[in-house]
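Q: I'm writing up a methods section and want to include an example of the input and output format. Could you take the sequence below and give the corresponding predicted structure tokens, formatted cleanly so I can copy it straight into the document?
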Amino acid sequence: MKAESNPIIAALDVSTVEIALKLAEEIRPAVGAFKIGSELFTTGGPEIVWCIRGSGASVFLDLKFHDIPNTVAKAVAAATRLDVQMLTIHTSGGSEMMRAAQESAQQTAKECGRATPLVMGVTVLTSMDGGTLAEIGSNANVGAQVERLAGLAVKAGLSGLVCSPLEITALRQILPREVQLVTPGIRTGAEKADDQKRTLTPKEALAAGANWLVIGRPIYAAKNPRAAAEEIAASLRS
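A: Here is the clean output for your methods example:
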């Protein structure tokens, strides 16, 4: 899965399969992949993945697996058999869990005769800040916590990381160049305030070193999602 042609991953964070499929059909020519998260997958199950893949589009399955290593390995194997191109796990699950996930993706892909999906480690959620981290007993310095978890993920062999746009520059200074960075928390500046606390514009995030941009509300909540996606894509080429 390559980001060179179009780095936009459109988040299908909508309530029903029907809405998701209609949205995907409308904006597919303007984006590089689709994100299927917890709400849509809980509603539509594996079938929603099959439908999106059947259209020829790439899928980023964002379920953020976090459990004992054996359970996560089995979940990653199941996701790999669905033929997704990217999936997420929580780096806070620890090194053993991350290694199990990566090994499972590689082995299952080999058995299926497919390319190994990118196993992306989630560091600190973009809805969290220092106060939230302190509340749960973690390092209240968001940047330090992200860098610590990122280092563990790379040592465990993960393909990339999901991080806030504001951590990209620091991570690019400490990570191998081949590590891919997927960045949610992308906002154009025209939206109302929401639960994302660490954001950048699409162009700023790419300039900082992101490979992929997960864009949800600026596209699916727009009056014209196709036009919104095309405008964002055009802004990245200007």
